[in-house]
Design brief:
single chain; 276 residues; alpha+beta; Aminopeptidase; 8-stranded mixed beta sheet
């Protein structure tokens, strides 16, 4: 979309420093902020800025997709900073909601989400996390899944891997092969899936039966968790499993994950918060 000219916005008796920003930005977020500013200048702003309207305008979840588009655009961020003072001095209630969204944007700007110039290769003493290679596919059929559906053959597994690669290039996931660093043999897979909204990532993993019970997944998960917190910049990591999968439950609890729902439910959800 073409460049959009953003003029300084007047507040009360003065105006924000005369700064005109030219930026190539999606039109609707800009229109949104200009609309919010017009509401502030209404003769009876308290009547217009009803709680439900404020929630609709400034709720972080409403902006999750836009945030991904504009979080790295410095000029847009500077624009938010410039009108921040105006909101603060003109209407305290609006400032509070706007400040929440601004903090959300600033946190998102700190994230380093996929894709990367070079696919992350993480190695420890007995574990190597690397990209899945075409030659790995035949050995991964039994543990290949996409949207909870298992692969039926090598062709199906290859098609699933292509979808996972598209998700990675779109910035919504990162999928590693768990390999032996000496032999390069693939033992399983793990990664972050379903996007990184609200500074959160969903971690999933699966190990081939022959390698279970040897502490391999514990090491692999520790590497992935460290990467999520320290490299991607996640604030929390979630994971899910079924109530019948006791080994997965034990693994998550040993890693420090806390259960979010009742034990009696079939599908359990766990959460790990980044240490302070």
């Amino acid at each position: 979309m073409g460049a959009i000219l953003l003029a300084a916005l007047p507040v009360q008796s003065g105006s924000i420093a005369s700064c005109v920003i030219s930026a190539s930005l999606p039109a609707w977020p800009v229109i949104h902020f200009l609309l919010a500013t017009q509401l502030l200048q209404h003769p009876a702003p308290q009547e217009i800025l009803h709680k439900k309207i404020l929630h609709k305008l400034f709720a972080p979840e409403y902006f999750s997709q836009t945030c991904a588009k504009i979080s790295r655009r410095k000029k847009m961020h500077n624009f938010l900073i410039n009108i921040h003072w105006g909101f603060k001095t003109h209407n305290l209630a609006t400032y509070s909601c706007f400040n929440r969204y601004l903090l959300f944007i600033q946190c998102s700007m700190k994230m380093n989400t996929p894709p990367y110039d070079q696919f992350p290769r993480i190695i420890a003493k007995n574990i190597l996390l690397r990209a899945v290679l075409p030659q790995d596919i035949p050995g991964l059929v039994e543990i290949s899944f996409y949207e909870a559906r298992p692969a039926i053959d090598a062709g199906d597994a290859a098609a699933m891997q292509e979808k996972i690669s598209l998700d990675y290039r779109a910035g919504n996931s990162i999928h590693w092969a768990i390999a032996d660093p000496t032999t390069n043999q693939v033992m399983g897979t793990l990664g972050y899936y379903r996007g990184f909204d609200n500074n959160s990532g969903e971690l999933g993993c699966v190990l081939k039966p022959a390698f279970r019970g040897k502490g391999i997944m514990m090491q692999a998960m520790q590497l992935a968790i460290s990467f999520g917190f320290n490299e991607i910049g996640l604030a929390k990591i979630t994971a899910g499993t079924s109530c019948q999968n006791q080994p997965a439950i034990n693994l998550l609890e040993r890693l420090g994950f806390a259960r979010l729902n009742d034990e009696g439910e079939d599908d359990l959800v766990y959460e790990l918060i980044k240490p302070a």
